[in-house]
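Archive entry: two folds, one per protein. Generate the first.
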Amino acid sequence: MANPLLSILNELHGNIFRLSDHESQLHERIRELEKTKSDLEAELEDARSQLAAALSDVEFLKVSHRLADSPDTLADTRRHIARLIRNLDLCINMLKEG
């Protein structure tokens, strides 16, 4: 009678050991996946920033092409718009400081 009980206990011990090892592997995999998720979220945020910048550039180009008929006028218009934007940024900074 003791022999089958020892056999069952040994089998349970082996099962517990395998389950414990599997749990450790799963926790490690979770850590890896969380790191991957974090990296992908950072990449997504970077891509969103690049997209916003590209959309801003597209809008800027659309406006500047509407305002100018020739390449020379277009260049002057772009410089003028860039100067206006810089002035707006300066005004905003002055408002924030004051």
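Generate the second and append.
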Amino acid sequence: MPTILLILLLAIIAAVGLLLILASRKPDRFEVERSIAIAAPPERVFALIDDFHNWALWSPWEKLDPDLSRRYSGPTAGAGAVYGWEGRKAGAGQMTITEVQPGALVVIGLAFTKPFKADNVARFELTPEGQATRVRWTMSGKAALMSKVMDLLFKMDRMVGGDFEKGLAAMKAQAEQPPAAAGR
């Protein structure tokens, strides 16, 4: 019996070691990206992104937790606007708009505190495309060893990419409504 336990223990140690070796060979940075064409002018789409109060209209994480606690500070929109959240399912963190090019770009610093600590950057690039606006949403950041291990098991792109797709689809639905019906 002790021999079987020893073999089992050595197999577990070897598997964990192999997982750590594979994870350490992954890139030190990650990026998740999705895009969509929205049949609306860039200004209408931009307003949904640049003002955190409008995120409740399209963000996939806003509906995760009915008891989500929200905090807003700084300007209502644009550089310096801050949105903090905390919830049982949505975790906790804070977003700060760090750069804006009206109708074209919003860059956001993301500081997650729960379920794990991470500092990432989200970018929303808006490009006119005929009568539509192409929205490109990316999130990038440093991939610590634990993030690399998680990516081996769960694939960050699949985990977060699906949420980006839901958010962009909701943003499209909101932006394509007649102006009187859309948001604030």
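Annotation attached to the second fold: The mean pLDDT is 87. The longest strand covers residues 118-129.
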